[in-house]
Structures are given as structure tokens and as C-alpha cells.
Design goal:
CATH architecture of the largest domain: 3-Layer(aba) Sandwich
Structural class: alpha/beta
Low-confidence stretches: 341-374, 504-519
Distance between the termini: 74 Å
Mean pLDDT: 80
Strand order of the largest sheet: 12-11-13-14-15-16
Length: 588
């Protein structure tokens, strides 16, 4: 049913208009002053507004201005009912965004004719806008597909082709040359991993699914500020309880779209984001003090596709989104949607048990790399859902005489079923199993030390794993020596973090060189950034290799790539580059 709101301080006329419209089948509500009318429009979301001009509290012009500056009401058809029929009065109303004028006094037939004509025109406008938005959405989707396809072809294919060439025709090479090629291949693989991770984060941040809205936003703000130089004043007042996945995704997309618009269309140096739970709703407010824009015009054009999409996303969750903007003053985006917390837990998730179970394997005793012979080997259980990675980890660990791989688990249910039967000294668990699982495991086997292995280097993952009870956190890109050392350290109850996570100076740099706007640094991979910092400190290739658990040849390859990417020629150039950007200091 079409909903109409009538605003007029003349009660007799107000009652007559409401009665006529209701008689024609319209759902009609009335307000006796402008202030009440604005609030009623926001509460009832009408399809049409009829409004007097001369009213107390807010006159008709002020009502129209207020509604046109709010995205939730900006496109609602607005008709003035007034006895002010001078050219200047009509021009003023039209300039503010009125759609039509109905001169007083008017007959019932004139009222219905004006209302029906405006509703028909609005229907045509909305269909046209929907067509434009649909076409724009299709274009955006195709552009994104093209971007991903081009990146896969131009960035990933050359790396994979180079890797294939390095590994082919090695049969006739000497042992030293084979080793050099393997080192080069490892450097290419590191580069490929970095690019895949970056592309994955651009598509959808894994933090959002794994750890929730707050960690995902905090990471996004860091990269956003590094990329745009717009500082984000983030003020969250949320507890640690997760929200529904759809609500978290919607909040993230609303904030992401709003901040990207700020970067594209304003020249501000800072903006603010407020996030809070209030009366069962999630409230999001994004504000900037830029030049602002005409909300009504934006909604009518294809340029408003992002605004349209986040508004529809909010509505689909039973919420509403308003964009308040005034040219020369700034913009405020306000979104509210239900914040029902998720009650899903690990105990509620079912994983089918595989028909083949990984059994304990007895290993032949042999000296380890450090020449230590131990009477009792470290019992290790592997929890990793990817078969290839499990096999690779097992082979690496089986080369150590002091290690005994007693079993494997490919999914959560298999892990929970097996740990009590065969409790290990060290459980190596992929982060994809979920940090929430760690306390459940340690409660069942309190004597076990848990080492998380992960492809995620973000601080939020590390902090969450350690907070839940893990003793160590090692990256999958780490070398064999680092993994072996990590297992030994963790088995003794000593905390271990991969080198990229444990060095504060490296950590700051790996986060994307936040304090600099020089995009050239973004071309370096995480591993290259580590090598860069150590090389700038004067370390030689072998010294870098020892610190990062890689070979000297791999360190040399990374150094060569760094010099090429940063257009540097000598070690002195590299040091000067690092000094200028505050990555190292003369005080050492």
C-alpha cells in the first residue's frame, strides 16, 4: 500500500486531506508541525510527502532542506500545498528540491490528480535509476574480474613459469648449481605467497571471518592510512562477543565504502569512525569535515552506486542507513542494524570423520642436525587440513632423530577425537582450525605444548593465538631450520615467534611502512622487508641468513631484488634510503 505523510498546521485541512487520500486507498498519516513531520517521515518511510510552507517550529522550506540532506529521505517525492504562489516562492521551493506545487485552495480532484501524477513519475524515475545502478554493478563486477584476471596473468604466471624453468633440466647440473637453483626457487615462492596473500586480502580480509569485526577494521585502518594518508579516529565500544557473520560483513563494507569515498572525493587529513552496540542494534557512524555533496543528486546518478549498495545491504538486514551531507561542511554516514550475537561454537560444528585414520609412526633413530642423541624423542601431532602441507611438514620433521610424528589430523573432529588417545608433547596446529579451539585442546591434554603454524602474519592472529594458550607461532613460509628450532623451544615451554613477528623494528616495517607515503616500499614482499632492514643495519648475506633461517644464497637473491625494486646501486645507497625514512637511525 502506498504511504503518504501530510504536514500542515491547519488541522481542519489536514483532516480533510487525510480522509480523501484514505478513501482512495492510500495509507496516510498526518503531522501538525514541521518538526513532527520530519520525525514522522524518518520513522514511517513514506512514498510521498505533502507539506504546507507556513508552519511553526520548522517551515516547509526547512522541512524540505532537512529531508533532502538525509539519504534515507532525500529521494522521497515532495509536494508543497500552499497559498504562496508568487514566482519567487515557487522558485525557492524548486531550488530546494520540491517536486511539485499544489496551490491552495484545491479540490479533491486536483489533490488526487497531483498525487497520482507524481507517483507515476516517481515509479518511472525509480525504474530508470534501478536500471542504471544494475548496469553500474555489472560494470563494477566485470572490472573487478578483469583486474583479478590481469593480475593472475601478469604477476603470477611469470613467477610460476620462472619457477618451472629453474626446477627443470637440473639432472646435468652440479650439486652446487642445483642448490643455487633451489635457493632461487624458494625466493620466487616467497614472492608468490606474498602476492597471493595480498590478492586474498583485497577480495575479503580473512581477519573478518576468523577473528571478527574489530581486528579486521584495525588492520584495514592501518593499510588505509598508509595508502591514503587519511588518519582514522576509531572509537569502538564493543565487547569481545562476535556478531552474526552478515552483520559483521555489512558493517565492514559500510565503513570500507565510506572511507574509500572520503579518500576519493575529499582532501581531509582525518575522519572518524564510531562503532557501538546500543539497545540491541549495531550503530556505525562515519564522519568527515570535507566539502560534502548533494545527497539527492548522488542518489539519482550512477555515481551513487556504492551508496546505493551499502544502503540496500543495511536494509536487507532489517536496518537503515542515512547519509547526511552539506556542501562545504562535511558528511556523516549513520547505519543501524540488528546486532544479535552469534551463538555458534566449536561444539556445534560437525566435521565428517575420514574413513582412514592417521596412525602413529615409529621412526628409526638417527642423530639430529646438532648431533644431540636423546633417549626420549619429542612426540608431535600434526593438525593441518591441506594434505600436501601435512606431507611436507611430516617429511621435514621426520629428518630429526629427536622428533617422533605420532599422527595427523585433517579436520577439527579428527583432532579432538585423537588427542586424548595419543597425547603429544607438541601439537602443531594450523591457524585455520581456529584459535577458539586452543583452550578446549589444552583442557583435554594439559601437558601438551601448542605451536600454531600459519600463513597469516597479522599481529591480531598472533595475539589471539597466544591469548588462547599457544606457546609459539611460526609462519608457513619459514625455513626448515626455523620450524625445527620452534618445535624444540616450544617443547621446553619457551615461547617462540617467527623472526618476522618477534623483532619490533621489523614488525613496524612489515606493517607497510606506516609513517611514509612512499608507495615504492609497497613493492617489497614481507621477506624482502626483513632482509632490507638487516642489510641496512650492515649485516652481510650469511649473517642475514642466520637470523632469518634461510640460506646465504636466498639472502643474496632477496638483496638483489630489493636493489632493483628500489632503484639502488650500492650498499651506501641502501643505508641512505633507510636513514631518510627513519627505518634505521645513526644511533643504532
Amino acid at each position: 500500500m502506498t504511504r503518504i505523510i501530510v504536514i500542515d498546521d491547519a488541522r481542519n485541512l489536514l483532516d480533510e486531506v487525510i480522509a480523501m487520500l484514505q478513501l482512495e486507498g492510500f495509507e496516510t498519516f498526518g503531522a501538525v508541525d514541521g518538526l513532527q513531520g520530519v520525525q514522522m517521515v524518518r520513522d514511517y518511510h513514506p512514498d510521498l510527502i505533502l507539506c504546507d510552507i507556513m508552519m511553526p517550529k520548522l517551515n516547509g522550506y526547512e522541512v524540505l532542506q532537512e529531508l533532502r540532506s538525509d539519504s534515507t529521505t532525500a529521494s522521497v517525492p515532495f509536494i508543497f500545498m500552499t497559498s504562496l504562489d508568487s514566482t519567487s516562492d515557487i522558485r525557492m521551493g524548486m531550488e530546494l528540491g520540491a517536486d511539485d506545487y499544489l496551490p491552495k485552495p484545491f479540490t479533491g480532484q486536483q489533490l488526487l490528480s497531483t498525487v497520482n501524477a507524481r507517483l507515476r513519475k516517481q515509479d518511472i524515475v525509480e525504474k530508470h535509476l534501478l536500471k542504471e545502478v544494475s548496469q553500474q554493478l555489472i560494470k563494477v563486477q566485470e572490472d573487478e574480474r578483469h583486474r583479478v584476471a590481469r593480475e593472475l596473468h601478469e604477476d603470477f604466471n611469470p613467477i610460476l613459469s620462472g619457477l618451472k624453468m629453474l626446477l627443470s633440466s637440473t639432472q646435468s647440473l652440479s650439486e652446487n648449481e642445483v642448490r643455487r637453483r633451489v635457493d632461487d626457487a624458494q625466493a620466487l615462492v616467497d614472492d608468490l605467497i606474498e602476492r597471493v596473500n595480498r590478492l586474498s586480502k583485497e577480495m575479503r580480509p580473512s581477519l573478518l571471518d576468523d577473528l571478527g569485526l574489530l581486528p579486521a577494521l584495525q588492520q584495514f585502518f592501518l593499510t588505509y592510512t598508509a595508502r591514503t594518508q587519511v588518519r582514522v579516529d576509531f572509537r569502538p565500544t564493543l565487547d569481545d562477543q562476535r556478531l552474526h557473520r552478515e552483520v559483521e560483513s555489512a558493517a565492514f563494507r559500510i565503513i570500507e565504502e565510506s572511507l574509500n569515498n572520503i579518500a576519493r572525493h575529499t582532501s581531509v587529513q582525518a575522519c572518524s569512525v564510531l562503532l557501538r552496540k546500543q539497545d540491541g542494534s549495531l550503530n556505525v557512524v562515519i564522519e568527515d569535515h570535507g566539502q560534502g555533496f548533494d545527497v539527492e543528486e548522488a542518489l539519482k546518478s550512477s555515481k551513487g552506486v556504492g551508496l546505493f549498495s551499502i544502503r540496500q545491504l543495511t536494509i536487507s538486514l532489517g536496518g537503515h542507513l542515512a547519509v547526511l551531507s552539506r556542501p562545504g561542511i562535511g558528511t556523516r554516514v549513520i547505519a543501524n542494524c540488528p546486532a544479535n550475537p552469534s551463538t555458534e561454537s566449536s561444539e556445534d560444528i560437525y566435521f565428517p570423520v575420514r574413513t582412514t585414520t592417521s596412525l602413529p609412526i615409529q621412526l628409526s633413530a638417527k642423530p639430529d642436525r646438532q648431533g644431540n642423541n636423546t633417549d626420549r624423542r619429542i612426540r608431535i601431532l600434526l593438525a593441518e587440513d591441506h594434505l600436501l602441507i601435512r606431507q611436507g611438514l611430516r617429511r621435514l620433521l621426520e629428518n630429526e632423530s629427536s622428533f617422533e610424528v605420532i599422527g595427523e589430523a585433517a579436520h577439527e573432529r579428527e583432532l579432538l577425537d585423537g588427542i586424548e588417545t595419543h597425547p603429544p608433547d607438541v601439537l602443531i596446529m594450523d591457524m585455520s582450525f581456529g584459535a577458539h579451539l586452543i583452550p578446549h585442546i589444552l583442557k583435554r591434554i594439559p601437558g601438551t605444548r601448542l605451536l600454531v603454524i600459519s600463513s597469516y602474519s597479522e599481529e591480531a592472529y598472533v595475539q589471539e593465538a597466544l591469548r588462547q594458550g599457544a606457546v609459539g607461532y611460526v609462519l608457513k613460509e619459514s625455513g626448515t631450520d626455523e620450524l625445527v628450532f620452534a618445535v624444540r623451544e616450544v617443547s621446553q615451554g619457551r615461547r617462540f615467534l617467527s623472526k618476522t613477528l618477534s623483532e619490533r623494528v621489523l614488525d613496524t616495517f612489515v606493517q607497510g611502512a606506516r609513517e611514509t607515503s612512499d608507495d615504492i616500499l609497497a613493492s617489497l614482499t614481507n621477506r624482502e622487508r626483513e632482509v632490507f632492514v638487516l642489510a641496512a643495519q650492515g649485516l652481510r648475506n650469511q649473517e642475514i641468513a642466520d637470523q632469518l633461517f634461510i640460506s646465504a644464497r636466498t639472502a643474496e637473491t632477496h638483496r638483489t631484488n630489493i636493489m632493483r625494486k628500489l632503484s639502488l646501486r650500492t650498499q651506501s645507497d641502501l643505508v641512505r634510503f633507510a636513514l631518510r625514512r627513519g627505518i634505521i637511525s645513526l644511533e643504532g
